[in-house]
Amino acid sequence: MLKGIEVCQTAHSAHLQAIAHTVLQACCNLPHLHETRVHFCLAAVAEALAKWATMTNTQILSDVLAGEVWPDELDALHAAPQYHTLLFENESVRVLDTTVPPGQTVPLHTHRWPAALYMLSWSDFVRRDAEGSVMTDSRLAGKSADGIALWSGPLAPHTLENVGESKLQVISVEFKTIPC
To answer: What confidence tier does 6 reach under pLDDT thresholds 50, 70, 90?
Structure first.
């Protein structure tokens, strides 16, 4: 295992560059994104990837392996296809466009891989676990903004309710493999 982590360290940079290229291609295929917005999207995701690059390989391995193997029917694309659109997928990454209109709740679903998130349109939300207990209420965290990038580990079964006044739209770049 340690030998594998050392190999990861040497291939880490090239892998991140390949992921950034993949994200750019996926973002360019979004018809509603202006070219300038695509470059901001790529820059924000690159910032999240740079944060990932500063993590130790043990932390990365922990994030990648943290997710349990949840049933396929709980995968975001299967359990909530009206809210998640697949933009691109290969053996390393999956890029999703998630849109939740105000007042709507995304049914119970999972995100089994860690992801860099780019907020196209912010709105307050409440995330609840499978039992209905509140995991996150964005209103308690202060105001966020469009155009920010965030890091997220895998997400266990949850629902997400848009409690704001505008749509919530996020581009997620899910990392299916350890970066090496």
So the answer is: very low
Secondary structure (DSSP) of 69-96: ---GGGBHHHH-TTTEEEEEE-SSEEEE
Q: How confident is the model at residue 80 (pLDDT cuts 50, 70, 90)?
A: very high
Q: Are 157 and 128 in contact (CB under 8 A)?
A: no
> How far, in Å, CA of 5 to CA of 84, rounded?
33
Q: How far apart are CA 180 and CA 169, in angstroms?
A: 30
CA nearest to 95, candidates 1, 162, 26: 26
Q: How far is CA 146 from CA 17, 25, 119, 135, in A?
A: 24, 21, 5, 22
**Single pTM value for the model:** 0.69
Q: Could you give the CA distance from residue 28 to residue 4 in angstroms, rounded to a whole number? A: 34
Q: Are strands 93-100 and 105-111 parallel, antiparallel or unpaired?
A: unpaired
- Residues 167 and 148: their CA atoms lie apart, in Å, by 16
